[in-house]
Amino acid sequence: MAVLQDFKCPNCHGSINFDSDTQHMKCPYCDTEFEVEELIGYNEDPKSGDAMQWENQAGQEWTQDEQTGLRSYVCNACAGEIIADATTGATACPYCGSPVVMTEQFAGALKPDLVIPFKLDKKAAKEALKKHYSGKRLLPKVFKDENHLDEIKGVYVPFWLFEADADAYIRYKATRVRHWSDSDYNYTETQYYSVIRAGDLGFNWVPVDGSSKMADDMMESIEPFDISQAVDFNTAYLAGYLANKYDVSAQQSQERANSRVRNTTEDAFASTVVGYTTAVPVNTNIQLRNGKAKYALYPVWLLNTTWNGQKYTFAMNGQTGKMAGNLPMDKGAYKKWLFGLTGLIGAVCFGLSYLIWML
What we know:
Number of helices: 7
Shape: elongated
Radius of gyration: 28 Å
Distance between the termini: 86 Å
């Protein structure tokens, strides 16, 4: 059974949270603020309460398979036992509400290198969700009023940060098309070119979500995070939030990182092929080298809502406020929009046909 790290106020001995507004540790009981570094020495040796030995005559033991995915912890504030899954790194005690950090989860090879502290609080996440609803023409009108916010939680999500250099050689088949007319004919001239681009690009801090619980596309949708605001990892920043350790290794994440680097390289090179009517890559060779990976925790607000029996999950960047998530669609409004769009296209086509006929 592991021991949780619970940060205590030196003044009143209350449990302390990390405050995203002040970027300090703040006691909710006496309102005293502390720098993170101030509490490191004070909390190095947490005191545990008196323990009573009981003879265990209860039920059956956990099976090996059941034990694999569970961890047992003791809350330093109230001595309550907390059962969590193998990836939980920080949570709140269900008995006394104290923020707790499973320091064992971040020990040794699992310890993150960096953490980006939360900049935005729960209130900002709720406001961002309301703003996310606005301007969505195909969103059912009753959704804003009837949908129920079931849960909102701040989570430190594990990310692998990759660095690499990309050496690229890309050859494009390009064309230039010219049209002109005289009194008798319409002419089209097409010229063909072979365009070559070669060079190298350096990539730093390419993020890949290291948690199987988080949808990769949703995590990418709330990027970017400002890595310049990252600090050296300390468990004090986790107090008051949930945190997960990675369950997708750096090696397992390499393919996704390589794909992101290659796609960005292709886009960057393609942006330099200008002045042509078309440009299609016909030979692409991208070699990656000097690959490195670091482990970081990024701040994310997760909001779960329910409407018409369906669950909807939204994620907000806890540093920048960028929001992402799927929304229901009003099928009636969609049909009207599609009908209107079809009518507009038809009118444009008719107008062009009429002009051609007039000529």
